[in-house]
Amino acid sequence: MIKRPSRAIAAWLKNANPEETASIEVMEYALSIIINISLIIIIALGVGHSMGKYGETALALFSFILLRFFSGGVHIRSSFGCMATTIVLCLTIPRLPILNKAEMLIFTLICILLLLLFAPQVDSEAGFKPELKRLFKIISLCIVSSNLILWSSIISVSFLIQCLTLIPLKGDK
């Protein structure tokens, strides 16, 4: 779904400036990520708005994305699967019952434990330096701990779902 337009745009860019652009494959990969994230944001916020939950959907989406950027996590193999799962989660979270402070505290402590054990969960090919991994772990812990000040039920659930993606699945390296 995203591969074809990414390839077409990459080829167009390469033809427009062959000497100063990266390879078509590199641009296609980067463009597929940009298109995927853009579609997730546009669709989730559009549907959230039409259902009267724009702000709540935005909060769920951006808290999930922010923590995921620093903590990493298991990836769904297809871009469509990733997009559909993220959209459904971010549209569902605002419709869940509101947590009380005790429940939010429990969710936050579970997140902190999962982050300490598994974050950051990045591809081995990314070539992260050990110092950068420590920094991303600390940033992830700070992001999650911020909800001890904000006390947002939506953020608590978003963070917990994201932290659950840190647990290595059977067969993952």
In short:
The chain has helices spanning 3-16, 24-50, 54-71, 79-92, 101-118, 130-145, 147-150, 153-164. It is an all-alpha fold.
Describe the fold and architecture.
This protein has helices spanning 3-16, 24-50, 54-71, 79-92, 101-118, 130-145, 147-150, 153-164. The chain has 8 helices and no strands. 31% of the residues are buried. By secondary structure, the chain is an all-alpha fold.
Give the total of beta strands: 0
Helix-and-strand structural type: mainly alpha
Q: Report the end-to-end length measured between terminal Cα atoms.
A: 28 Å
Largest β sheet strand count, sense and barrel closure = none
Residues in β-strands, percent: under 5%
Relative helix content:
over 70%
- The number of helical runs is 8
Overall mean confidence score, pLDDT = 93
Order of helices and strands: HHHHHHHH
User: From the alpha-carbon coordinates, what is the Rg to the nearest angstrom?
Assistant: 18 Å
Low-confidence region ranges:
none
What overall form do the CA principal axes indicate?
globular
List the helices and strands and how they pair.
Elements: H1 3-16, H2 24-50, H3 54-71, H4 79-92, H5 101-118, H6 130-145, H7 147-150, H8 153-164
Helix pairs in contact: 1-2, 2-3, 2-4, 3-4, 3-6, 3-8, 5-6, 5-8
Q: Main traits of this protein?
A:
71% helix, mainly alpha, 173 residues, single chain, 0% strand, globular
